């Protein structure tokens, strides 16, 4: 049974309390795999900031709310593309692993400094076709151009995702093309402390779909401990072959190589979950031994705030502290 566009990857994160602001008492994400369309119709239109807004001047989003993008001509901003930061890891904003690369690229994101996060990054997700990423802090949403590696725009969580009513732990996105009909929107899941908030994204607009709570779906052997979750990403192709298990390890009815998977990064391990056949977790792999994070230049796990996988630009990890 393949994971469709509106499928549910069900998970539950138990009580969390971390010094970087990650805390909560239970989170879940679910999937209904019976249809190829969202199970709940859109209920609200929340495009607080037009994604194409000018990153060098204040502008208004689709609902009239103002972005915090500014032009700091006094010298307080850092214009231009991202710069390497290998000599000062504490200055790194992100680490990029382009498709097929064998070495991570540590960078300081370019663009106006006023658009950089003002507090620790807690989660991230990408919009596949637009090659952009969205970072969430406790109260901000920051857009990043993944190709230019620059800050693009900033707004507040209250404006962009007003339905979020719990501390954010992590996030991931489902590419619009995967398993859906033409015109299917991107699927976004933002995991809070006791609820998962599901959104759809299309044509620059985030639309709230539903919130849902699950209990023990991840309380099985091999599942990650909720208190340790730092980031997730969904890779629907496994083109780099980072997860090389056989489906028979977790599926009674499936054999062969893993296709789509959800990666969950904890303080010291990477857990991969099959999301194409039976939705089982493979045994966790030590962070330093997982195929992607074992490569040269990978960020230390305690620096991770969020991650996103884009088929064009590759895997990106954003600094959280």
Secondary structure tally: strands: 22
Biggest sheet: strand arrangement: 5-16-15-14-13
Main sheet makeup: 5 strands, antiparallel
Q: Give the H and E element order.
A: EEEEEEEEEEEEHEEEEEEEEEE
Kindly report the average pLDDT value. 78
Low-confidence stretches: 1-78
Instruction: Tally the structural domains.
Output: 1
Shape: globular
- Can you tell me the CATH class? Mainly Beta
The end-to-end span amounts to 39 Å
Reported CATH architecture: 4 Propeller
Cα gyration radius (Å): 18 Å
Helix content percent band: under 10%
What is the SS-derived class? mainly beta
Compute the number of helices. 1
CATH fold topology: Hemopexin
What does this structure look like?
The protein is an all-beta fold and 321 residues long. The protein has a single domain (11-46, 78-319), classed as Hemopexin. It is 1% helix and 32% strand. It has 1 helix and 22 strands. It has one helix at 157-160; strands spanning 11-13, 16-17, 23-24, 27-29, 44-45, 83-84, 94-97, 105-108, 123-127, 132-136, 140-145, 150-156, 170-174, 186-191, 196-202, 205-212, 231-235, 261-265, 269-274, 285-286, 304-310, 314-319. The strands form 6 sheets. It has a 5-stranded antiparallel beta sheet with strand order 5-16-15-14-13, with no helix packed on it. Strands 6-8-7-22-21 form a 5-stranded antiparallel beta sheet, with no helix packed on it. The radius of gyration is 18 Å and the shape is globular. The termini are far apart. Residues 1-78 have low confidence and may be disordered.
């Amino acid at each position: 049974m393949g994971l469709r566009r509106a499928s549910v990857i069900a998970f539950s994160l138990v009580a969390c309390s971390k010094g970087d602001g990650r805390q909560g008492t239970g989170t879940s994400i679910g999937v209904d795999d019976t249809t190829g369309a969202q199970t709940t119709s859109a209920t609200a239109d929340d495009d607080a900031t037009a994604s194409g807004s000018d990153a060098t001047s204040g502008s208004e989003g689709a609902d009239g709310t103002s972005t915090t993008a500014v032009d700091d001509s006094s010298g307080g901003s850092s214009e231009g593309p991202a710069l390497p930061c290998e000599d000062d890891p504490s200055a790194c904003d992100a680490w990029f692993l382009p498709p097929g690369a064998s070495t991570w690229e540590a960078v300081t994101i370019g663009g106006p400094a006023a658009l950089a996060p003002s507090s620790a990054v807690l989660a991230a997700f990408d919009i596949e076709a637009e090659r952009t990423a969205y970072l969430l802090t406790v109260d901000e949403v920051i857009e990043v151009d993944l190709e230019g590696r620059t800050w693009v725009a900033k707004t507040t969580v209250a404006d962009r995702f007003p339905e979020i009513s719990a501390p954010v732990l992590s996030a991931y996105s489902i590419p619009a093309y995967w398993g859906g009909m033409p015109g299917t929107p991107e699927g976004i899941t933002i995991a809070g402390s006791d609820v998962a908030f599901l959104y759809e994204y299309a044509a620059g607009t985030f639309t709230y779909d539903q919130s849902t709570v699950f209990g023990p779906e991840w309380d099985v052997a091999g599942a990650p401990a909720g208190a340790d979750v730092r980031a997730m990403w969904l890779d629907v192709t496994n083109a780099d072959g980072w997860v090389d298990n056989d489906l028979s390890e977790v599926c009674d009815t499936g054999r062969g190589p893993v296709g789509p998977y959800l990666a969950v990064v904890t303080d010291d391990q990477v857990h991969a979950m099959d999301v194409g056949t039976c939705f089982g977790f493979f045994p966790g792999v030590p962070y330093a031994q997982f195929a992607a994070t074992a490569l040269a230049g990978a960020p230390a796990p305690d620096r991770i705030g969020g991650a996103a996988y884009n088929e064009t630009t590759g895997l990106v990890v954003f600094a959280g502290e």
